[in-house]
Write a structure and sequence with these properties.
single chain; 387 residues; alpha/beta; Rossmann fold; six-stranded mixed β-sheet; four-stranded parallel β-sheet; 13 helices; 13 strands; globular
Length: 387
C-alpha cells in the first residue's frame, strides 16, 4: 500500500528503519519519512489517484501506513481553495486565494497530522498517546484516539480556548491544564510519558504528523492544475505545515506530477512570539528560544521550535520571507476577511491577512501573482473579541 522506505535525520541524513517505533534521530532532531519515489513514479498514475474520493487518504501510497486496517480517519482532507475576489481587490491582488483547513474534522488542519500519526503509531503497536498543545492539536489527538479506541493524555496551558478544553474532555481524553506556555506543557508531558510508557506525539518529535500535514501541499498542487502558486503565506507556530508542504513539493517533482517551479514561502508570526521571523532576518541557521512569549493567537505562541532549521531552509530556498504582526492587527484582519468574504478564520490565519498588507505596501507581491493564504482553523473555535 505505502511506498515508505526509511526514515532520515533532517540534519545529518542518517537513515533509520521505518518499521521501528522511534521519535527523534540520534542527533535529537526531526526524522523525515522517505519513500521509494522512483518505484512510485513508475507504478502510480496521478489521474487514477485523483479519481479516488477526495479525502487525505486519496494519497495513501505516499503516506506511511502499510496496512489499511490501521487507517484511522474522520474524513480529513479535501478542503477547498477559494478565490477571494473582494479581499483581493482591497489589496490590489488579482489572484488571491485561501485554502480553508477549518473545514477539517475537529475544525483545524491538526486533523491531518494527527490522523497520520495515530494511524501509523497504532500500526506499530502504540495504545496510549500524550501531546502538549496550544489547543487544536489536543482536540485532534483526543478525537483520533477515541476513533481508534485508544487512550490519550493532553497537556495544554490553562488559558487555552474553552472549546479546546471542552472537546478534549468530551472525547474522553485525560486533560492536564498547565500553568505556563506550550513548552511548559511539553516538559510536563514528556516527564509523564516516560513514567507512564505513553507515546509522545509532540510537534516534529515523531516522524508522522508532518506526513499528514504535507497532504496540504498535494492538495494545493491539484487545486491549481499541478502548477503551484507564486506565493504561499502561512501562519507558523511549530511549523509542521510549512515543512510538510515543502517536502510535498519535492516529492511531487520527483514523481513527475509537477515541474520545478516553487512558491515563495512566507512565514507569519505574532510580534509577541516570532522566533522564526527573528532568525530569518538575523540570518541565523536555526531558531532560538523566544523570551516572554505573548499573543492571543495560541497556535502562534510557540517560543521553542525544534523544526527551525527546516522552516528557515524552506524560506530561503524559495526566496521567501518572514513577517511578524501585532495582535491588534490580527483582530482587525479577522474581521476584514469575515466582512469581505464571509469566512470566519482562526486568529492564526488572520495573521496572514495582516501580513498581506505589509507585503503589498513593500511591493513584495505583484498584482498579477497567484497568492495563496491558509486558514488553519475555524474562527468558531475562538472567543471573538470585537473592537
Amino acid at each position: 500500500m505505502s511506498y515508505l522506505s526509511h526514515l532520515e535525520c533532517s540534519h545529518t541524513g542518517k537513515s533509520y528503519n521505518a518499521d521501528q517505533l522511534i521519535r527523534l534521530s540520534d542527533a535529537g532532531l526531526p526524522l523525515l519519512a522517505r519513500y521509494d519515489l522512483a518505484k512510485a513514479r513508475a507504478e502510480l498514475d496521478r489521474d487514477a489517484v485523483m479519481a479516488r474520493p477526495s479525502d487525505m487518504w486519496r494519497y495513501r501510497e505516499l503516506l506511511p501506513v502499510r496496512d489499511p486496517h490501521y487507517i484511522t480517519t474522520l474524513g480529513e482532507g479535501g478542503t477547498p481553495v477559494l478565490k477571494l475576489e473582494q479581499l483581493g481587490g482591497h489589496f490590489g491582488l488579482n489572484q488571491l486565494y485561501l485554502k480553508d483547513e477549518g473545514q477539517n474534522p475537529t475544525g483545524s488542519f491538526k486533523a491531518l497530522g494527527l490522523a497520520a500519526a495515530v494511524s501509523r503509531a497504532r500500526e506499530l503497536g502504540v495504545t496510549e498517546f500524550v501531546i502538549p498543545t496550544a489547543g487544536n492539536a489536543g482536540g485532534a489527538l483526543a478525537a483520533y484516539a477515541a476513533r481508534a479506541g485508544l487512550r490519550a493524555h493532553v497537556y495544554m496551558p490553562q488559558d487555552a480556548p474553552l472549546i479546546n478544553i471542552n472537546e478534549v474532555q468530551v472525547m474522553g481524553a485525560d486533560l492536564q491544564l498547565v500553568n505556563g506556555l506550550i513548552n511548559d506543557a511539553g516538559r510536563e508531558a514528556a516527564a509523564d510519558a516516560i513514567a507512564g510508557g505513553w507515546f509522545d506525539v509532540s510537534t516534529l518529535k515523531e516522524p508522522y504528523r508532518v506526513e499528514g500535514k504535507k497532504i496540504m501541499g498535494y492538495e494545493v498542487a491539484a487545486a491549481f492544475a499541478w502548477e503551484l502558486p507564486d506565493v504561499i503565506i502561512y501562519p507558523t507556530g511549530g511549523g509542521t505545515g510549512l515543512i510538510g508542504m515543502w517536502k510535498a513539493f519535492a516529492e511531487m517533482e520527483e514523481l513527475g506530477w509537477i515541474g520545478s517551479h516553487r512558491p515563495r514561502m512566507v512565514c507569519v508570526q505574532a510580534d509577541g512570539c516570532a522566533p522564526v521571523v527573528k532568525a530569518f532576518h538575523e540570518n541565523w541557521e536555526a531558531t532560538k528560544p523566544w523570551e516572554n512569549a505573548s499573543t492571543l493567537a495560541g497556535g502562534l505562541r510557540v517560543p521553542v521550535t525544534i523544526g527551525g532549521r527546516l522552516m528557515l531552509r524552506a524560506l530561503r530556498e524559495s526566496g521567501g520571507t518572514a513577517v511578524a504582526v501585532s495582535d491588534g492587527r490580527i483582530f482587525e484582519a479577522q474581521q476584514l476577511l469575515a466582512r469581505r468574504e464571509g469566512i470566519f478564520v482562526s486568529l492564526e490565519a488572520a495573521a496572514t491577512i495582516a501580513a498581506l498588507q505589509d507585503l503589498t505596501n513593500q511591493n513584495w507581491l505583484h498584482p498579477d501573482e497567484r497568492v495563496l493564504v491558509f486558514n488553519t482553523g475555524s474562527g468558531l473555535k475562538y472567543r471573538l473579541l470585537l473592537s
